Amino acid sequence: MPESYLGVLGIAEALGVSRHAVHKWRTRYPDGSDHPFPEPDVEVDGAPGWRPDRLGDIVRWRDSLPGRGAGGGRPSLARQEYLKEAMARGLDRDEAMRALATFAIEFPEMTEQELCAWLVGKWRR
Questions:
Q1: CB-based contacts of 85: which residues, under 8 Å, 6+ apart?
Q2: 10 Cβ partners below 8 Å, 6+ apart?
Q3: What is the C-alpha separation between 104 and 98, in angstroms, rounded?
Q4: Using one digit for the tens of pLDDT, what is the confidence trace for 64-81?
Q5: pTM value?
Q6: Exposure pattern of 7-38 as b/e (b: 16+ CB <10 Å)?
Q7: For residue 116, which phi and psi values (nearest 5 degrees)?
């Protein structure tokens, strides 16, 4: 069975951003810069690919971007709702974000917004 990798589109969907944003990050933060974007694990015909288990590294990289402030910028409405529900269940922000990154790895076909809505729906049953 062939190995699966996340391309730029897969990372974009998991993080709830456009693929253009991922391309922009790779251009603005190349290897050798002060805050390099995580290097791909593979390249096929010039297209980068990252192992799904590296998604957490990419989330941590994004959350620590310079100028984003302590909270990593304003989260999407879906993420805000997810964090609110997670905290109501005793998770702190870091635990909730690690859980979300883990689900993103397990369900790479779902966007962050879809994952957040799915988890909130499960919790509210």
A1: 119, 120, 123, 124
A2: 108
A3: 10
A4: 776 544 455 566 778 888
A5: 0.53
A6: bbebbbbbbbbeeeebeebbeebeeeeeeebb
A7: -60, -45
